[in-house]
Design brief:
263 residues; alpha/beta; UCP029730
């Protein structure tokens, strides 16, 4: 397990003022965990990672010349986009798949996964954001995820969505730019609500007043290289435009819809 690095930092121009995050970029497990008792096919599903997001993040980081942090472990091991006290941090069942390696789980093993994978990933995010904000100018944080085309038999019409809590600064202009393309259906806190206490955006952005947005792209649209490139072409100029706005480089704390901070 010690040879397994739980994060990857893509180097870029830290002075550019933008950082990309991809919590669920990969479907890998440390060798000691085998497959957690799951068939290999499970690791090609959304339950293991955000399909298409690794490639999209790499293309955007390269085009924009900015740093990015990628999670290198499957969310089936432990979910980096959940708070340490979240009961869904280590899932026993995910979209109908029972995960034998996660149930039963001892407190010792729970804490081992936190210490070995979850916390090192978040420390890498902290270091990257600190480096990008070393000049005193807040970095713009853009977190990338993907969602399934349907859920429990119901189609999801959105091509992409922006999720957020209450800091609207990057969200409003990003939604406006995405919706200029009349062929796209864009969700605003759909199919999920972006206010999640303890998640990555809460932990690293809401509590510090760092401007941010979380973008979800539907997985079937970025399931291959052609789709990834199409979305990278679409998003790169939008992200660059956001980054050029001075108001998106100021620290400003907004109250969270999940409740008071520090409670």
């Amino acid at each position: 397990m010690q040879d397994f690095v739980p994060f990857e930092i893509i180097e870029g121009d830290y002075g550019a003022g933008m950082v990309l995050l991809a919590d669920h970029a990969m479907n890998r497990l440390p060798p000691a965990y085998g497959s957690l008792g799951l068939p290999e096919s499970a690791f090609q599903r959304h339950i293991a990672f955000d399909i298409g997001i690794e490639g999209l993040t790499r293309q955007l980081a390269a085009r924009l010349g900015v740093p990015a942090v990628l999670g290198c472990f499957s969310r089936l091991l432990i979910d980096p986009n959940r708070g340490e006290d979240d009961p869904t941090l280590i899932m026993k069942i995910s979209d109908g798949a029972i995960i034998p390696g996660n149930y039963p789980i001892t407190g010792e093993e729970w804490n081992r996964r936190l210490a070995t994978y979850h916390r090192p990933y978040h420390r890498a995010v902290e270091r990257t954001l600190a480096k990008a904000g070393a000049s005193g100018r807040a970095p713009l944080v853009l977190s990338l995820h993907s969602f399934t085309p349907a859920w429990k038999g119901a189609p999801r019409p959105w091509h992409a969505a922006v999720l957020w809590d209450s800091d609207h600064r990057a969200v409003v202009p990003l939604l406006e730019m995405l919706r200029r393309d009349g062929s796209l259906v864009i969700g605003d806190n759909q199919p999920y609500d972006g206010a999640l206490r303890g998640d990555t955006m809460y932990r690293h952005c809401m509590t510090s007043g760092t401007p941010h947005a979380l973008l979800e792209v539907r997985q079937d649209l970025i399931a291959d290289e052609a789709g990834i490139t199409e979305w990278a072409n679409r998003l790169a100029p939008m992200f660059a435009a956001l980054n050029g706005d001075p108001s998106l480089h100021e620290y400003r704390i907004f109250p969270s819809r999940t409740g008071p901070y520090g409670t």
